[in-house]
């Protein structure tokens, strides 16, 4: 995907399986240009425009004491720099950058285009976004701009040009931070016109568009381009392909704006990396398409205290960032030291929690650990959001912890740039996510990110590291490929999965995969049609499961699968912690084994006797298919069997519950997310990087404690 224009690969509506790497600037500087000589990056968003200048001096002294080496400046400073249209006030920013530089602190300088000043919307209301009901959204908060507005674009780029000219040679400038958390969606007339332009490029003519959108359904035929709108609020379910194309368009339109700013910065400062902050599994923006256009992959991550799955979600998200960075290092650009302000009930973080979260990111490939924000605001909508320096000041328990964390991160400098090895890949695709979760589907309880987590969690529990990859990625280096839910499946991706197994790989596919083509049209024939050969199985009906009565399934013993007459009926694969039976939830499918063998069958109702889990020998590999959503313990049992098939083991055997184990380079991280102490037996003597202690045999991790173990030669 190239961003400015929709992809064309000869077939309307198809996308290439992998985003093409940006080819306009081949040798771009990356994260190493920041970490070289600095080690792990540590710092936060710094908003000096909210404070008098004497506080800036104190800030820099405190930053130095806390080992801060990078701050993001100016994210929301458009009105301060351009108080009236066309004016410029850079004097204050000059002084901020000089002060930071004198203090040895590098600057990630933001283009302040995420929040235009009120004058823009006041004079040019057409720059303000319109929601799907046609209501304009006003200034007074932030993000009030339309990605397709020519006036916004012109004003933003003029400012970016002047900012780049002003600071190109400033010694504090280490990275550019474009905008903030891109995600705007707009339904204004400018957007509708831009959407039509995007569709013309994609489909060429109206006849092709009508076919792609299936407009013979409900009399939706378009006779003129001008009739086409963004999918505004309508009386009933909207056209799913129109919705899908609009999601593609929105992601592309934002990317086009990001690239326009980025190109100005790159032209002026070719050796300074450019980034923007991602938001994990943020649905509106296809980060696989964006990542090739970033010099540094950076994420904002705000785990919910009180969510027991939080550590697993975090690990999955960090692995996604590493995948977006092509396996290289990435940075955590925003996180919180304590409670945030934007939930209903903002729980605080107990002692050790933010440190644990930060070190978890390091374990999974982060070379930068930054926070929102440096100093807690006194006013404005985020005055209750945690910071590195709270309202009470530096003489606080929280700030002491911040300092301690800054100091200990220095000891992890040897890990900078180290890879995180993985033998398992997990496939995720934004476009499939959009298409899968369209309105009017069989069940809105089958959610893509829930499915990702269901397949990921048992791997996490076993200490198996996973790479997140897009469809069409090179798979030959992996022993196991997991496809939790790939609703949209192109022939090319199906072929890549098929040949991966043929050549000896192990594949695990979850339900409701391979259902539709890239237009969102259902593949006809028994499903999943494009994967039928590799799975050795096929289905004919998707059957959402009632909450009551439960739908039971039964594991079939290995011997029974082989047809061994002496096998006792109902014995389970060796040894299953779940027992003979498990309960299927949410979803089931009526499947038939072809060359595959059933590994578990449904026991109840119309599905009684039909396979729930299947395993197929194909070529020199194996393919597994799961036709339901089992309870958690059954997912663990299934994962253990699939891991055994793939000869993959975790980085440490017998991990206690709640302990995360992951290796970065040759260094083993053990993180205790559990509520109680956890005893772990090591397989080799090691030096602990944070304390310098020698560790051997068994060790006990207190709750929220982390050890970073480098094997002793
Ligand atoms: C996001 C934004 C920040 C701030 C924080 C609050 O990450 O980028 O500007 O609003 O959320 O958690």
From TrEMBL:
Positions annotated to bind substrate: 142, 180, 342
GO terms for biological process, alphabetical: galactose metabolic process
Single GO MF annotation: metal ion binding
EC number(s) given by UniProt: 3.2.1.23
Domain Beta-galactosidase C-terminal: 658-710
Pfam families (alphabetical): Glyco_hydro_42 (PF02449), Glyco_hydro_42C (PF08533), Glyco_hydro_42M (PF08532)
Binding-site list for Zn(2+): 146, 186, 188
Positions of the UniProt region annotated as Disordered: 1-34
Keyword entries, A-Z: Glycosidase, Hydrolase, Metal-binding, Zinc
Location of the Glycoside hydrolase family 42 N-terminal domain: 45-411
GO cellular component: beta-galactosidase complex
Positions of the Beta-galactosidase trimerisation domain: 422-648
Active site: 181, 334
Entry-linked SUPFAM superfamilies: (Trans)glycosidases (SSF51445), Class I glutamine amidotransferase-like (SSF52317)
Catalysed reactions, semicolon-separated: Hydrolysis of terminal non-reducing beta-D-galactose residues in beta-D-galactosides
Enzyme class at the top of the EC tree: hydrolase
Gene3D superfamilies: 3.40.50.880, Glycosidases, Golgi alpha-mannosidase II
Membership in a protein family: Belongs to the glycosyl hydrolase 42 family.
PANTHER family, sorted: BETA-GALACTOSIDASE GANA (PTHR36447)
Name of the molecule in the record: Beta-galactosidase
Source species of the chain: Micromonospora endophytica
């Amino acid at each position: 995907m190239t961003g400015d224009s929709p992809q064309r690969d000869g077939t309307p509506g198809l996308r290439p399986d992998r985003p093409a790497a940006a080819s306009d600037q081949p040798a771009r500087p990356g994260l190493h240009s920041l970490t070289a000589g600095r080690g792990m990056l540590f710092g936060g968003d710094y908003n000096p425009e909210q404070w008098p200048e004497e506080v800036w001096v104190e800030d820099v002294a405190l930053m130095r004491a806390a080992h801060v080496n990078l701050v993001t400046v100016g994210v929301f400073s458009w009105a301060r720099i351009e108080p009236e249209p066309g004016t410029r006030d850079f004097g204050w920013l000059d002084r901020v950058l000089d002060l930071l530089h004198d203090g040895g602190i590098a600057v990630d300088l933001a283009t302040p285009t995420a929040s235009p000043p009120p004058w823009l919307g006041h004079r040019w209301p057409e720059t303000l976004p319109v929601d799907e009901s046609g209501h304009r959204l006003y200034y007074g908060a932030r993000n009030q701009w339309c990605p397709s507005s020519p006036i916004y674009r012109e004003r933003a780029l003029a400012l970016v040009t002047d900012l780049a000219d002003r600071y190109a040679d400033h010694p504090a400038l280490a990275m550019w931070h474009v905008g903030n958390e891109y995600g705007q969606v707009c339904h204004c007339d400018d957007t509708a016109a831009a959407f039509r332009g995007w569709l013309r490029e994609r489909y060429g003519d109206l006849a092709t568009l009508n076919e792609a959108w299936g407009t013979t359904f409900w009399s939706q035929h378009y006779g003129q381009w001008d009739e086409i709108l963004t999918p505004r609020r309508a009386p009933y379910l909207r056209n799913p392909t129109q919705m899908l194309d609009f999601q593609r368009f929105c992601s592309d339109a934002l990317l086009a704006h990001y690239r326009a700013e980025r190109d100005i910065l790159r032209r002026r400062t070719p050796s300074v990396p450019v980034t923007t902050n991602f938001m994990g599994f943020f649905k509106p923006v296809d980060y696989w398409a964006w990542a090739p256009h970033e010099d540094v992959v950076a994420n904002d991550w705000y785990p919910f205290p009180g969510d027991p799955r939080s550590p697993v979600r975090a690990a999955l998200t960090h692995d996604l960032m590493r995948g977006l960075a092509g396996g290289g290092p990435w940075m955590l650009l925003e996180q919180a030291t304590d409670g945030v302000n934007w939930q209903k009930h903002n729980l605080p973080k107990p002692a050790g929690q933010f440190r644990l979260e930060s070190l978890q990111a390091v374990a999974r490939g982060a070379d930068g650990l930054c926070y929102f924000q440096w100093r807690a605001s006194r006013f404005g909508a985020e005055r209750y959001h945690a910071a590195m320096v709270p309202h009470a000041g530096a003489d606080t328990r929280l700030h002491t912890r911040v300092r301690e964390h800054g100091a200990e991160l220095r000891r992890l400098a040897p890990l900078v740039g180290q890879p995180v090895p993985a033998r398992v890949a997990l496939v995720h695709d934004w476009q499939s996510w959009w298409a899968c979760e369209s309105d009017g589907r069989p069940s809105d309880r089958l959610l893509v990110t829930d499915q990702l987590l269901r397949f990921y969690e048992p791997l996490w529990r076993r200490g198996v590291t996973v790479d997140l990859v897009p469809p069409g990625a090179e798979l030959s280096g992996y022993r196991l490929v997991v496809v939790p839910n790939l609703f949209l499946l192109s022939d090319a991706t199906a072929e890549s999965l098929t040949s991966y197994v043929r050549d000896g790989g192990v594949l695990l596919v979850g339900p409701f995969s391979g259902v539709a083509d890239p237009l969102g049209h259902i593949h006809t024939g028994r499903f999943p049609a494009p994967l039928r050969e590799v799975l050795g199985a096929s289905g004919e009906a998707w059957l959402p499961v009632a909450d009551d009565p439960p739908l039971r399934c039964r594991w079939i013993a290995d011997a029974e699968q082989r047809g061994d007459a002496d096998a006792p009926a109902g014995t389970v694969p060796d040894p299953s912690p779940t027992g003979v039976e498990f309960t299927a939830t949410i979803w089931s499918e009526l499947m038939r084994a072809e060359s595959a063998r059933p590994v578990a069958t449904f026991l109840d109702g119309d599905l009684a006797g039909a396979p729930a889990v299947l395993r197929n020998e194909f070529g020199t590999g194996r393919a597994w298919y799961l036709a339901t959503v089992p309870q958690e313990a059954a997912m663990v049992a299934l994962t253990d069997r699939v891991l055994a098939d793939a000869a993959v083991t975790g980085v440490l055997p017998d991990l206690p519950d709640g302990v995360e184990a992951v290796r970065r380079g040759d260094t083993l991280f053990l993180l205790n997310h559990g509520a109680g102490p956890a005893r772990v037996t090591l397989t080799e003597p090691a030096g602990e990087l944070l304390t310098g202690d020698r560790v051997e045999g068994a060790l006990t991790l207190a709750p929220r404690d982390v050890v970073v173990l480098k094997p002793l030669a």
